Amino acid sequence: MSNTYVPMIPCNVAGPLGVLHLPRLWLKVSLEARGKIAPGYPGIGKGFDSMVIAGLGLSPEAVKKFITDKRPTYGEFETWIKAQPGVKLDRASVNKLNQSIMGYHHRDEVRAEILKTAGYPDDGSVHGSAVELNALDDWAAFHASVLK
Prior knowledge:
By secondary structure, this protein is mainly α. The chain contains seven helices and no strands. The N and C termini lie close together (10 Å).
C-alpha cells in the first residue's frame, strides 16, 4: 500500500456547517500538507475547492496556512472558519454555494476522460454532474493504487 491517499470523502458531503465539499477540502489540504495526497490531486484546486473558499469569503492562503500549521481536526477547521471576519455562513449563502456545487458540470473533454479512466462508456448512461464524475474518478484512482 502506498504512503499517499486518494481523498475518498465525496464532494456532496457536508459537515455541521452544511457546506458541501468542505470536509473533502479539509482532507485534501491536510493530506497535501503532510505529503500524503495521491498524485494528481491538488490540495486546493481550481474547481470545487476554489468555489467553496470563495463562496465562504475565505482566502485560499489563509485556509492552507491554518491547516498546514495547526493540523486541525475537521471540527477545529469548522470552528476556525466561523471565527473568520466576513465569513458567509448564512443560510442563503450556503444554499447558493451548495446549489452551485450540485449543478456544476465538467467540460465535455474532462467528462470523457474521467469516464474512460473509470471504464464507463461516454454514451449518456452516466448523468455526468461533476460531483458524480469526481466520485467515479476517485474510485478508479483508489482501485488502481490500492486494490489492483
